[in-house]
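Bump. Still looking for PTS glucose transporter subunit IIA structure tokens.
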Amino acid sequence: MTTVTSPLAGRAIGLAAVPDPVFSGAMVGPGTAIDPVREPSEAVAPVDGVVISLHPHAFVVVDGEGHGVLTHLGIDTVQLNGEGFELLVRKGDTVTRGQSIVRWDPSAVEAAGKSPVCPVVALEATAESLSDLRDSGDVKAGDSLFSWN
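Sorry for the wait, here they are.
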């Protein structure tokens, strides 16, 4: 079983509240979303594993069981072309839970007209394989978001 922890501090809001139909409809996969605190911060690894995909606005870490977790920093933030995002690791790096991956500023994303809401998605998972899903309340980076069986 994989425990997926929050990559950010903020408020858990659930995928249905994400202002993007691809995420809110769970087309990418099941999971939850974080409405982050509006201050410069670092998004951290939600699991121990290898960074298999890394963009300024999104990253995927795959754990030892082959579970890939996508953290997407904001909605439509690909349109910012990396502006305001700083990569702290490289694709292919092995990371530990809680290790900083990307430095960013949710308030700058909001100022640019984008939603800073961050989906945290279990890739290629079924909704039934997730338990203890957190979709409300305040979370700190490192707090449990869901378990993946």
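The mean pLDDT is 97.

Edit: fixed formatting.
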